[in-house]
Amino acid sequence: MSKKKPGRETATHRHLKERSHHAQIFSPSDQGKYLDTVQLHQLEQSFRSWVDATTRTNVRRSRRRILAIFLLIRYTGAKLSEVLNLDPFQDIDLDDRSVRFGRMHESHRRPLRTVQLSETFCREMQPLIADTSEAAPKGIFNVDPGFVRRKFYERAEACGIAKPLGAPEVLRRSRAVELMQSNMPLPAVQMLLGHSTPNLTSAYVSFSEDDIHNVTRYYMEKESTRKTSARNCFFGKIQTIRKGDLQTQVDLVTIDGHRITTVITNESRRRLGLKKGDLITAEIKAPWVIVQKGPRASQSSADNVLDGVVESINRGVINTEVIVRISGGTQVCSLVTSESERRLGLAEGDRAWVMFSSFAVVLLAE
Questions:
Q1: Which CATH number covers residue 141?
Q2: What is the DSSP string of 178-214?
């Protein structure tokens, strides 16, 4: 009986799976056991409608407590037990826009974990905490976990989501997936969830814990208030600055170890106040990204060449959108003509290279 040789689809599926399930954030068996961003939004609206459905003050306050618990899990990826053990006046710092987890019991000696919050999130949490604290002398998060779970299941079913997908641990997993799909670097997602982070090794630069907190804060704010049309964003630290007579070359390295090179005018460098070690965002519009198929990149004048796998192809009559997932889980979007895409013969799972010129990179100082 002959053995079936592993085909291209099997190898590709394995390759993509390895890229998707990073560092035990979630395992291959978890596939299909998380909510996408649209479903998370539907569930959030279900909780809000539930709160607004009553006019009784005491009932409304009780429901707002559950809403606050949901929002913390939904946007921080915390465990239910972590949220229920929060002291809102000691652990939630709305001025610093952060929440600290890990002080469950002094005897446990558990290390603190700080998660950054968006300004929008903090504005909503402030009245929630102030209002519900009046009716909860033992603490607004001092709620029976079984009761919380029942309400989560009810809200899920109310908006057409399967009951098991309303569980707090599913929300935590869903938040991890959502952040990785928005290109938040893996170490930042791991730190946010309280997972042990891999060695942040780079031949050129190292990122401190404060740096990663700043990365997390940047992505949280970008998520709540998107202010740019650029599809491709890399957040990194400036490695070198080479000044010329008219222009300056700036090299930055991301947490995932990708090196991005850009050339800007000297006036732009002075206006941005750039210096080595600064954290900065590099953006590239999709039409400026070139895609090449094959096991290795050909010689070209592109300063930035990144290896990846084609994740999705959205074909149109004139243009086609190609999404390539590079190492570390970051997505890069390229917009090419449909004729070019047909000539390349691209298919999902293909090994591919994304390339762009240093002149196509725009730097944004936060």
A1: 1.10.443.10
A2: HHHHTT--HHHHHHHHTPPPPP---SS----HHHHHH
How wide is the angle at C-alpha 348 spanned by C-alphas 297 and 311, nearest 5°? Answer: 80
Rounded to 5 degrees, φ, ψ at 320 are -130, 135
| Final residue before a domain boundary, out of 120, 155, 181 | 181
- For residue 4, the model assigns a pLDDT of 41
Choose the final residue of a domain: 181, 202, 231. Answer: 181
Q: What domain range is 335 assigned to?
A: 284-357
Q: Is 234 left (phi over 0), alpha (psi -120 to 50) or beta?
A: beta
Nearest to 139 by CA among 150, 152, 129, 126: 129
Q: Output the pLDDT for position 206.
A: 60
Phi first, then psi, for residue 156 (nearest 5°) are -65, -50
User: Is the torsion defined by CA of 69, 73, 75, 76 positive or negative?
Assistant: positive
User: What was the pLDDT predicted at 137?
Assistant: 56
Beta strands in 45-111 (DSSP E): 92-93, 98-101
305 Cβ contact partners less than 8 Å away, ≥ 6 residues apart: 297, 353, 354, 355
* The residue to which tokens 């992505």 are assigned: 219
Q: What is the pLDDT of residue 290?
A: 94
- Number of domains within the chain: 2
204-236 in b/e burial notation, b at 16+ Cβ within 10 A?
A: ebebeeebbbbbbbbbbbbbeeeeeeebbbbbb
For residue 194, give both structure tokens: 């309280």
- Rounded to 10 degrees, what is the CA torsion of 344, 345, 346, 348? -170
Q: 177 and 295, same structural domain?
A: no
Residues of the chain below pLDDT 70: 1-32, 103-111, 132-138, 196-207, 223-230, 328, 366
User: The tokens of 127 are what?
Assistant: 């009245």
CATH of the domain at 313: 2.40.50.100
